[in-house]
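Model it.
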Amino acid sequence: MSQNDGSTLIDYFENHEHRMIHKWMHYFEIYERHFHQFRGKDMTLLEFGVLHGGSLQMWKHYFGPGAKITGADINPRCAELAEERIDIIIGDQENRESLQNIVATRPKFDIIIDDGGHTMKQQITTFQELWFHLKDGGIYLCEDVLTSYWPAYGGGYRNPGNFIEYTKNLIDQLHAWHSPDPALQVNAFTLSGFAIHYYDSVVVIEKRAMTPPVVRMKGKPSFPLDTGEQSVYDKG
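Modeled.
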């Protein structure tokens, strides 16, 4: 089964006999939805959480010969799992200096997947440090965010320190263009966040250089325009 035969990730998983892959089954549809655009292209992917290394082999197969895959894990034994086109980095994802060292000598990534330790500190710190090491047009995917509801991981329902609540604030920042409130101003995320998608236990954030949104009108009005509508209409 080659990466060019139209096979899906679930096909690969069901026929997989190499290093172990551990995934919730509904994740595969999410991956396909957001990752297919990079298939068969020169691309780079960073995944936190190597475990047995099976998912790194899956990404290598799925994206094809132009893919360069990097896995990051705190367990030094994972270094043994490096192979052709799979690089392994040992580091602590809740340590900002460690994260900075991980990306210091590497180009920006097309896809970053956080499947690491799943604590709130790890997920939030990793996003804060690596969002700007994601390419324009890239995808940031954090999985197993069900731990946002688990106190043992630093979460808890409506706990303001959990990752889900953190990303809810990103929704506000996405809309900051439209806010007259001085507490909500355009910031670096407003200028780089295109979309946020929520799924069961997965958050996907699309990166794209953003400019102030523009509204236009075309065609002939059916009724008299009010002052605001007329202003927009006159601009064409």
